[in-house]
Amino acid sequence: MAKHPSRPAFAAKVLSRSSYPEFLRISEILRLETAGGALLLLATAAALLWANSPAAEGYFALRDLKIGYEPWHLQLSLGHWASDGLLAIFFFLAGLELKREFVSGELRKVSKAVVPVAAAVGGVAVPALIYTLVNLGQDADSLRGWAIPTATDIAFALAVLAVINTHLPAALRTFLLTLAVVDDLLAIGIIAFFYSSGLQPLFLLAALVPLGLFTLLAQRRVRSWYLLLPLAAATWGLVHASGIHATVAGVLLAFAVPVLASRKRGETGSGMAESFEHRLRPLSAGFAVPVFAFFSAGVAVGGLNGFRSALADPVALGIVAALVAGKTIGVFGTTYLITKTTRAKLDDGLAWIDVAGLALLAGVGFTVSLLIAELSFGAGSAHDDHAKVAILTGSLVAALLAAVVLRLRNRHYRTVELAERHDADGDGIPDVFEHRG
Q1: What fold is seen in the domain 13-196+245-419?
Q2: How far apart are CA 151 and CA 169, in angstroms?
Q3: How far is CA 374 from CA 133, 191, 284, 371, in A?
Q4: What's the angle, vertex CA 106, arms to CA 251 and CA 218, rounded to 5?
Q5: Which of 90, 93, 111, 166 is the most exposed place for a label (fewest CB within 10 A)?
Q6: Whole-angstrom Cα distance, residue 4 to residue 237?
Q7: pLDDT in tens, 188-226
Q8: Is the dihedral of CA 339, 161, 25, 44 positive or negative?
Q9: How many CB atoms lie within 10 A of CB 236?
Q10: Cα 153 from Cα 151, distance rounded (Å)
Q11: Which of 425, 420, 424 lies closest to 23, judged by CA?
C-alpha cells in the first residue's frame, strides 16, 4: 500500500503581523504610552534637578511628608502613596491587558504566545542571574536586589522610540508591548512572593470579601463606578494591611474583569476590560506613573565624584550589567533558541538585527525597577540611592545602543511603512492586511 506523502510541518511565524482590528487597538495603546513616556521623562528630570539643587531639602521633605490614618495602616509618606497606591492603577491596567491578550488577542493562540512569553521569562531570568553573579560574596542586603533589573518599562521604551523617530514595524512594537506586559506580571509575582513581609492572614482573608463582591458585580457587567470603586479601594487597603504589596490588589482586580461582551445581557461593542482600559490608561500614563517617577527618581548624586562612587557599588554594577547585557541576552537568546528548536521561524521581511534592537530596548527599565529597589533596600538608603543611579544609567545606555541599532534600519522601516499604508481599493483597510486574509 502506497504511503501518503507527509504534510509539511506548520511553521508559526515569530513577530508576524496581527489582524487589522488588533493593529488599531495596539496602535492606540502605544500612542497613549508614548505620550505618557514623555511625561515620565519630564517628571524624572524634574526630580533629579530638584534633588540636586540648593533647595533639595524641600524635595525630600515633600517626598517624606506623611498623611493618612494609622489605625488602618494607611499613614504613609507621599512617596509611599505613589508607589503603593498610584502604581496599583498601573498594575491594574497591566493585568487587564494581559488577560485581554490571552482571551481575545493574538496571544490566545499558543503558537503566537509561546515566543513573547518565553522571551519575557528569559529577559527576567538572565538579568537576575547576572546581577547575582556580580554581587556574589557581598553582604546579604546586596543580594536582595536581584529582581531590580528584570522589568521593561514600556512607556520609557516607547518614549525613546518617539525621540529617535524610528519607523519600527508594528509587529515589533506589538511584541515589545506584550513582552513588557508579561514582564510586569512576572514582576508582580516576584514582589508578592519575595518582597512581602509580616504577613497578616486575617487581613488577607478579609480582602477576599470586597474582591469577591467586585468579581460578582463585574461578571454581571455592572459598570457603576460608585459600586466598583469602593470595593476596589477596600480590596487595596486590606491587601496593603496584610503585608503583601498593595499593587498585587491591582492585578487581582483586573483578573476579575470579563474581557468579552455578554450578548446574553444585551451588551454591544467593547467588553468591560477594554472599556476600563480606555478610561484608566490616560490616568495611569498621564498622572499615576509620572507622579511615582517624580517621587522615586529623585536622588542626590553629589556631582561627578558622587556618580563615580555610586557606580562603584557592586549593586549598581550588577544593575547596569543586567539591564544592558542581561536583557539583551535573555530576550534575543530565548527568541533565537525557540526558532531553532521548534517550528517557529522569524516572519518574512524581518531580520535578526531587528530583534537585537528590540532586545536592547527591553533593557530600558524604570518604573518597576525603582519600586523593587525601594522594596529591596529601603527608601533613602545608600544601596537604594546607588540602585536609582544605576537604573537611570543602565536604561540610558540600553536606550542609546538600541537607538544606534534601530537607526541603521530606519530607511528600510520607512520604505516598508509606506508600502503598508497603500490602500488600492479605498476601503479604509491597508491592502497588506487584506492580502493576508
Answers
A1: Na+/H+ antiporter like fold (1.20.1530)
A2: 22
A3: 21, 11, 20, 5
A4: 35
A5: 111
A6: 64
A7: 889 888 887 777 889 999 999 999 999 999 998 888 999
A8: positive
A9: 25
A10: 7
A11: 420
